[in-house]
Specification:
By secondary structure, the chain is α+β, with helices and mostly antiparallel strands. Helix content is about 25%, strand content about 30%. It folds into two domains: about 45 residues; about 120 residues, Umud Fragment, subunit A, CATH 2.10.109.10. Strand 6 and strand 7 form a beta hairpin. It is elongated and about 100 Å long. The chain starts with 9 loop residues before the first helix and ends in a 5-residue tail after the last strand.
């Protein structure tokens, strides 16, 4: 049993106990808020968004080695030039969609890329040469994409591993956090 402090009035005892209960309630509220935020963060980054680190310079200069890529998982209808993250043979690859299902891809000796007879280029400063393994013109199967890295002369992309099924696409890159060379 607790000894009563003879000098405390009943009002002081009530106030002290009330403050103790209020302080305990504040701690419990804080713990619930922290738990809620942790669960919300877990849900958002396991179901809606993702973070991955770029390995290599396949997408140089847009994405450099070591950059963090934040992506959106819920988008499933990708268009040409979207930058996506996918899994191929257990490895994560980041690349730009050059062609989608039913498109025809052609590469010639001069480094020119054609999709459905139209020359592609835009902001890509490196020529696009065909690599051994695929025969051109290449018809992209429905439900698959043809992925190219921006650093065309050194990128490991669909020219190496073929077309990528849409089920292997993790999501669309929405922002990049530079880790070096700011």
């Amino acid at each position: 049993m607790q000894q009563k402090n003879q000098s405390e009035t009943p009002e002081q005892v009530i106030r002290r106990r009330r403050n103790s209960v209020l302080e305990r309630k504040e701690w419990i509220r804080l713990l619930f808020r922290i738990l809620f935020l942790a669960l919300l963060g877990w849900f958002l980054f396991s179901k809606v968004f993702f973070i991955t680190q770029a390995k290599g310079n396949d997408m140089f200069p847009a994405i450099k080695d070591g950059d963090l890529v934040i992506g959106f998982r819920l988008q499933k209808d990708y268009v040409k030039d979207d930058v996506v993250v996918c899994m191929v043979d257990g490895n994560t690859h980041i690349g730009r969609i050059a062609a989608r299902g039913s498109d025809r891809v052609m590469m010639d000796e001069s480094g020119e890329l054609q999709v459905n007879g139209t020359t592609q280029g835009g902001e890509i400063m490196y020529p696009t040469y065909a690599k051994d393994g695929l025969k051109y013109p290449l018809e992209i199967p429905e439900g698959e994409i043809f992925l190219l890295g921006d650093y065309r002369t050194r990128a490991k992309d669909s020219r190496d591993f073929g077309t990528v099924p849409m089920k292997d696409v993790k999501g669309k890159a929405i922002t990049i956090l530079r880790r070096q060379g700011l």
